[in-house]
């Protein structure tokens, strides 16, 4: 502390310790054991607080998380690039359809369609990675806030955001396979409105 | 069913726009325009003459649901068939879209047959 006064938490801890010492002679064996446990717990909490305060938060928020989000962004870019190359090849195959016998053209069309369907993975994985990036940024903010609280500094203010629209509120990205609703279930749900 | 209508596809992933455009081409829909968010889509819809909108949900600065609400609130655009194609598959999303006036709802990943079936269904009823 700038004026040499111990922090509030330390003063409380010292006061509790002083009371415990003064009571030591009047305690039963059971009470003394309990107080010893409490004292140990207090030391563990104090040590944890000190460790949190000494966390290299700048490494986490300045290097680790930005590096992780950059890597994830690079994955999205690479998969987009690869998907576009696959789509280039599909479009070439579609242009060649007129130059092959009808049966082969039909088989070609079926195969190309399946590739188009499979390529939608890039959108889904991109959205999933976006959710991970958002989670990392939330962790970064929580770490900064926890360290600021433990070291007596004021936590950095969260960026102000305006009220969300219903569309934004409900935008959660792809569900995990077990939790997703199938097209058939959605069709049944829509039909129930008719 | 008129396949010469103008179709607007809206998605913030350019690869998805390309996939949907190519699938539409296979279905003989060749007049296709694109937008990468709801705001851009709304400007194109107000400036043009589109017979079908196929939109993603999760986009910024305007989501697909908010675009749908704007379309249904616009006297000139309110009857335009609107299909949502999205990874948002929770019941609450489908219900919100239906209440906002969506014509049909396709969950990603989808197949070409589902796209064909839903387009035919909404255009026949349009």
From TrEMBL, chain A:
One of its GO terms (biological process) is regulation of chemotaxis. InterPro entries: Chemotax_Pase_CheZ. Residues 150-183 are annotated as: Disordered. Pfam families: CheZ. GO terms for cellular component: bacterial-type flagellum. One of its GO terms (molecular function) is catalytic activity. Residues 150-160 have a biased composition (Low complexity). This is Protein phosphatase CheZ. It comes from Neoroseomonas eburnea.
Automatic annotation (TrEMBL), chain B:
InterPro entries: Bact_response_regulator, CheY-like_superfamily, Sig_transdc_resp-reg_receiver. Keywords: Phosphoprotein. Residues 6-123 form the Response regulatory domain. GO terms for biological process: phosphorelay signal transduction system. The keyword Kinase does not apply. PROSITE patterns: RESPONSE_REGULATORY (PS50110). Gene3D superfamilies: 3.40.50.2300. The modification 4-aspartylphosphate is found at residue 56. SMART domains: REC (SM00448). PANTHER family: RESPONSE REGULATORY DOMAIN-CONTAINING PROTEIN, STRESS RESPONSE REGULATOR PROTEIN 1. This is Response regulator. It comes from Neoroseomonas eburnea.
């Amino acid at each position: 502390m700038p004026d040499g006064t111990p922090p509030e938490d330390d003063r409380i801890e010292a006061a509790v310790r002083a009371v415990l010492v003064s009571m030591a002679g009047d305690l039963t064996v059971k009470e003394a054991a309990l107080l010893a446990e409490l004292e140990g717990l207090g030391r563990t909490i104090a040590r944890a607080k000190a460790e949190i305060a000494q966390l290299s938060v700048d490494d986490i928020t300045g290097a680790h998380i930005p590096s992780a989000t950059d890597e994830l962004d690079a994955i999205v870019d690479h998969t987009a690039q690869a998907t576009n190359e696959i789509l280039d090849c599909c479009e070439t195959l579609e242009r060649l359809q007129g130059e092959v016998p009808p049966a082969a053209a039909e088989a070609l069309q079926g195969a190309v369609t399946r590739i188009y369907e499979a390529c939608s993975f890039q959108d889904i994985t991109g959205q999933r990675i976006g959710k991970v990036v958002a989670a990392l940024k939330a962790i970064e903010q929580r770490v900064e806030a926890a360290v600021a609280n433990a070291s007596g500094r004021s936590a950095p203010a969260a960026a102000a955001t305006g009220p969300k629209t219903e569309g934004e509120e409900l935008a959660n990205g792809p569900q995990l396979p077990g939790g997703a609703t199938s097209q058939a279930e959605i069709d049944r749900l829509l039909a129930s409105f008719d | 069913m008129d396949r010469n209508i103008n179709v607007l596809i809206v998605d913030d992933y350019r690869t998805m726009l390309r996939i949907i455009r190519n699938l539409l081409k296979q279905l003989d829909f060749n007049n296709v325009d694109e937008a990468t968010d709801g705001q851009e889509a709304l400007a194109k819809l107000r400036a043009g003459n589109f017979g079908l909108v196929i939109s993603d949900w999760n986009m910024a600065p305007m989501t697909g649901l908010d675009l749908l609400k704007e379309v249904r609130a616009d006297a000139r655009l309110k009857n335009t068939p609107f299909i949502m194609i999205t990874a948002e598959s929770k019941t609450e999303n489908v219900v919100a879209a239906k209440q906002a006036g969506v014509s049909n709802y396709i969950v990603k990943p989808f197949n070409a047959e589902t796209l064909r079936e839903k387009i035919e269904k909404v255009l026949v009823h349009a």
